[in-house]
Amino acid sequence: MRSSLRWRLTLTYLSIIMIILVITYVFFSLSFRDYYYNNVKSDLTRQSILVAEMTIYYNSEHDNGLEPFMQSICNRTATDTDTRVTIVDSKGIVLGDSSYDARYMEPHNNRPEIYQALQGNTGIKVRKSATAGVNMLYVAVPFDNGSVSGAVRLSKPLTEVQSFYLKALMILIIAILVTGIVAFLISREVANKFSRPVRDVTAAVQDIALGNLKRRINYRADDELGVLAYAVNNMAQYLETTIDEISRVKNRLETLLDNTVNGILMVDMGGRVTYANPMALTLLATGKNIVGRKHVEIITEYEIIEMIDQVKDSLEPVKKEIILHTNEDKVVEVNVVPIKDSRTSAHGGVLLVINDITEIKRLEKVRKDFVANVSHELKTPVAAISGFAETLLNEGSENPNVEEFSSIIYQEAQRLKRLIERLLELSSIESGMSGVNQEKLDMSQLVSEAVAIVQKRNNVTNNNIMLEPIKKPVYVRCNGDLIIQVLTNLLDNALNYSPEETMVKVVIEEQGEEIKVSVIDKGEGIPENEKERVFERFYRVDKARSRKTGGTGLGLAIVKHLVENHGGRVGVESTVGEGATFYFTLPKA
Length: 589
Ligand SMILES: Nc1ncnc2c1ncn2[C@@H]1O[C@H](COP(=O)(O)OP(=O)(O)OP(=O)(O)O)[C@@H](O)[C@H]1O
Ligand SMILES: [Mg+2]
Known about the structure:
single chain, alpha+beta, Beta-Lactamase, five-stranded antiparallel sheet, 14 helices, 19% strand, rod-shaped, binds adenosine-5'-triphosphate, binds magnesium ion
């Protein structure tokens, strides 16, 4: 914390104070020394003048000798002024001295300060005393009382002057030190006061960063820190609402994922499970804690692992129906899609959505079985009705009603028979291509066969159906009978839903990896909004017309099923009144 704001502030204040104090000290000590010396000098000068004035009172008639008089002045003033006092006559002969016996002292006229005084000036000198042997400050002034003249000299040892000066300096230093300490304490307090809000704001921000988003800063002032505190509070508020919102969404999502009937599993590119909802755990019959583990360790269905690998490689979604042998032979539809990492937008792994379709499959089977069974059961009575109606018709009767009614019964029974056949056909197609024989066949060959069948059945001449010639054979892998069934259905429709004298054209084309077969008629055509629906079961554009042609509405549904079972597509292009083009594609062999 030595580098904390408080310490830096304190140190800054302290350095400023120290610099001021040092400058003050130097300045004061220098001027104080001058002042002190001058003071001592002027004191000595004034005292010398006083002593000089006292010598004027010497009266040779009353006083018993010059020397004793001067000596007594020297002694008395020396005690009063705490100095050494020397009085000399105009020739420099010592008349009295407070510290030494004047009788044994040499003439002092050669002392520079006395020399000056005898010239009539004030002499001031600092020098080593020849008598005392120490550095002294000397001040000498002249005197003259008519009968006698000379000089008075007062002196002080310099050591004494200096010790005074040093004492004064000591006091100054102590004063400076005390000021310094007080200044330090005050500056620390000030620094403390200034840095406290910064510390408070910092503590609050740290608290917020640690996740306490309810924390707010209670610093309200108009300064920069106040603006910062306001911004931090706003930020915390924003974070709080955003995170609240995120956790609400997260909770909603979690509830959804926990309760959905779909199994959802995420696997990262490294093959580790990153998420699995409860349904996924149930369907895949894995243990509880699978997040973080390798998917190959926990998914036992080989097909699912294969799908995951395929999506990781191709980055294309894959969808498949799978039987879960490890979980009561449940039938599931597994969708595997690649997912992107939201941050890097690189591929972040795969998402598995597993739907339990066991029940749907079961119901579908029930329905298929039902249709097959019903159709089968209906076949026998319908055959009987149709047979007897035919016999009645052939035998004839007097009653014209009998002939009419038996004819109606016969026609409707025929229609019913056709419908039953169609339903049986459709239900067998629905069970898929398993067990259906497939081989490499020439499509133009198949079309020719289909044209021949239709022409024979409808008694139409060759001219009515035109097969556009194709130069080379075009091979497809298929079951020939089923593709002929597709073609005859389309050709039947083309003939049934167009006027008798118009042409029906069949065109075979190669389109990339596919073979496209189109059946083109010049009939009534199909309205735009019905195009998709004509492939639905029992859907007929014109119900009355279809009934007249004996149509069941199942032909195109059968076509669509058969083509898709072979891996192809069906479609229709049409303009009402101008005709229709029904086409299908099959992959090339
Ligand atoms: N070439 C076409 N031109 C105009 N409309 C057509 C054509 N082909 C089919 N349709 C319409 O589509 C409906 C469905 O045809 P689909 O072949 O499925 O049944 P259908 O012909 O009525 O009966 P089915 O084929 O079983 O005898 C037909 O009823 C008819 O209205
Ligand atoms: Mg038809």
